[in-house]
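[Amino acid chain]
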Amino acid sequence: MKQVMIDMMAAMMPYLKTPVYAAGALAIIGLLLLIFRLFSGRGPGLGVIGWVLMLSGAFYIICQLMGLYLGMTPTVNFGDPKKFEFNTVEFWKLGAAMLVPGIIYVVAAKR
């Protein structure tokens, strides 16, 4: 069973770059909504964006913990493997980069 989970994680890792880009776009949209909220007092959708970012960040952190349990270090490669460029970032760092703005946006949406 452990080998099946290791194989699933190894197969999953290359496809998790796209959600990182989507979360980055959401974080930028959330930042714009937060600035809009500071000037107008309204921030439509700021709480929803915050929750989506928090859930995405929690997913990556849980994947990191599961990978450590399985004896691997899950990473996302932002380099070009065809040119032998390997710029890897661990999942917990990506999760923290999503979780922190998510918490800020949810707290700002409630005020």
Observations:
- The helical segments are 2-12, 17-40, 46-70, 91-110.
- The radius of gyration is 16 Å.
- The chain has a mean pLDDT of 91.
- Residues 46-70 form the longest helix (25 residues).
